[in-house]
Design a protein that fits this description.
By secondary structure, the protein is an alpha/beta fold. It has a single domain, classed as 6-pyruvoyl tetrahydropterin synthase/QueD (Tetrahydropterin Synthase, Chain A, 2-Layer Sandwich). Helices cover about 25% and strands about 35% of the residues. Strand 5 and strand 6 form a beta hairpin.
Length: about 150
């Protein structure tokens, strides 16, 4: 029999940003924007001394990082062929450029998972972790990553 787990959830909403899917053969290749939303499931097998999976008040670092990455920013995949143009636009204070391995919802979900899981693991000294991340670009579309 496997050990029991506790799960708690947290949602962060309202991160307006733009991106483009340069590899797409559709209108997604054009710069467009959404207000992104992030849903996390945190998990542990042993609760904190307060009886929590994670201290939601202790997630200020996560929220600050999400704001830095996704609040009024332009997301670009690291292999976008127009990277130099976007870097020039950032230099001219036209955009706040953020480079990700893959700006699609699936790639963003994995990227956010990896960063936030490390933050949670460090904050809880390995007691808790991120079980999954859902990244939503609007009310109709999202992607979920869990290892």
């Amino acid at each position: 029999m496997s050990a029991p787990f506790f799960t708690s959830t947290k949602r962060f909403k309202g991160f307006p940003c733009t991106h483009r899917q340069w590899r797409a053969d559709s209108h997604c290749k054009y710069i467009h924007g959404y207000s992104r939303e992030f849903y996390f499931e945190f998990q542990c097998s042993e609760l904190s001394r307060e009886g929590w999976v994670v201290d939601f008040g202790g997630l200020k670092e996560v929220k600050a990082w999400l704001e830095h990455m996704f609040d009024h920013t332009f997301l670009v995949s690291e292999d976008d062929p127009h990277m130099s143009l976007f870097k020039d636009m950032e230099q001219d204070s036209i955009i706040q450029l953020r480079v990700l391995p893959n700006v699609g919802m699936e790639g963003t979900a994995k990227y956010v998972f990896d960063i936030v899981n490390e933050m949670v693991s460090q904050r809880t000294v390995g007691r808790a972790w991120v079980k999954l991340v859902e990244v939503r670009e609007n009310e109709k579309n999202s992607a979920i990553y869990h290892p």
